[in-house]
Amino acid sequence: MNKNMEKVLKAFGERQLWDVINMTEAEDREGEHYFIFEDWEGLEKFIALAKEVLSMDPVAMEYEIEEKLKTNFVFSDEYTTCDDCGKVVRIIPDSYGWQPDFYTGNNGLVCGDCVRENWEYKEDYIQDKINNPEKAVNGVLSEDDLIAMGFEKVNADSYEAGWYEGQDDDPEVIYNELRGTHDEILFFVDRIGQFDTCFSVWAR
Ligand SMILES: [Zn+2]
């Protein structure tokens, strides 16, 4: 923890602001630091405190404080922490190709890294996706993970569903054709484009 951060957090504790400002302080798996706020009011109070404690210009910008503290100010509708490892997880898309690297299940919200490190999480993650054409493995697990879990790819080419001609593969139709041939059928998102999705079918 850097000196500026130490000072600000010390003042934060001394003034018992943990009871006033709803925020979480954590790092992600890459060691990047975050303050996750519930609302603007909390962020504004925190910024006012940081400016005072660090004797900064009262008109200093938010990013200048982030730089001083070597942190990122974010909100809880975009980021949260993993219920297992406690690391920061982004929970909403930041681009059209984005795939979630977490899932919410019996164990709360679990990040992709924790899932990939734990056999039970992996099985729990696919539980509601098995034999369900309305759901697919989307991020979190790779093809290699599925192979390690005993799955085999059923189709040679990727299916496409999208806006263009020829991109009309329907998971429901594919599932109805395949059902009964394997115990467990699983859809896997290969790629998400701006207007289409490529997917494949796996079985165990
Ligand atoms: Zn985790």
List keywords for this structure.
alpha+beta, 2 domains, 7 helices, 25% strand, binds zinc ion
How would you describe this protein?
By secondary structure, the chain is α+β, with helices and mostly antiparallel strands. The protein has 2 domains: 3-77, no CATH class; 102-203, no CATH class. Helix content is 30%, strand content 25%. It has 7 helices and 11 strands. The chain has helices at 3-14, 40-53, 62-69, 112-116, 119-127, 143-148, 171-178, and strands at 23-27, 33-37, 72-75, 79-81, 88-90, 102-105, 108-111, 152-153, 159-162, 185-192, 196-203. The strands form 4 sheets. Strands 8, 9, 10 and 11 form a 4-stranded antiparallel sheet that branches. Strands 1-2-3 form a 3-stranded mixed sheet. A hairpin with a 5-residue loop joins strand 1 and strand 2. The protein starts with a helix and ends with a strand. 21% of the residues are buried. The mean pLDDT is 94. It binds zinc ion (ZN). Zinc ion binds next to strand 7 and helix 4.
